[in-house]
Write a structure and sequence with these properties.
This protein is an all-alpha fold and 149 residues long. The protein has a domain of 32 residues. The protein contains 4 helices and no strands. It starts with a helix and ends with a helix.
Length: 149
């Protein structure tokens, strides 16, 4: 029986140890469920603060640019209507004058060419008429013409 008593005693010890372990686990479980986990967000706060500072700087920079742009627009020189109209009329007058001169020159060149051709024809007719009125000269002219050819 001593063996049986030893085994029983071992089993009782094991059961007691097991119960003690269960109690410890229950305590730990209670502590875990009641404990609130807090995150350390100090790093994130500094990053967010840095980002907010940069955003504020950017907004201020945009406002400065906008105010400078507005002041430039206010100080922009706008030409009076009469000056713009005079400029446009002068420009159109210059374009029309240039076009007229070019067209006139082309027509003048055609007139000069026609006059030149008419002059050649008239001079040939005059020479023919002169040679018909003076037959001796006509013979000399024909002899000269044959030599030249």
């Amino acid at each position: 029986m001593t063996k049986l008593e030893e085994l029983t005693e071992l089993l009782v010890n094991e059961i007691n140890d097991f119960n003690k372990g269960i109690t410890k686990l229950e305590k730990i479980n209670d502590q875990i469920s009641t404990t609130k986990i807090r995150m350390d967000v100090t790093d994130f706060k500094s990053i967010i603060a840095n980002h907010e500072q940069k955003m504020d700087d950017q907004v201020k920079s945009q406002e400065r640019f906008e105010s400078q742009f507005e002041s430039l627009l206010k100080n922009a020189k706008v030409y009076p209507n009469w000056a713009v109209i005079v400029f446009i009329i002068s420009f159109l007058f210059g374009v029309v004058s240039t076009t007229f001169i070019i067209i006139s020159k082309q027509e003048t060149e055609l007139i000069v060419e026609e006059a030149y051709q008419k002059g050649i024809i008239d001079s040939n007719n005059s020479i023919q008429l002169f040679l018909e009125k003076n037959p001796k000269l006509k013979q000399k002219f024909e002899k000269w013409e044959q030599k030249v050819e």
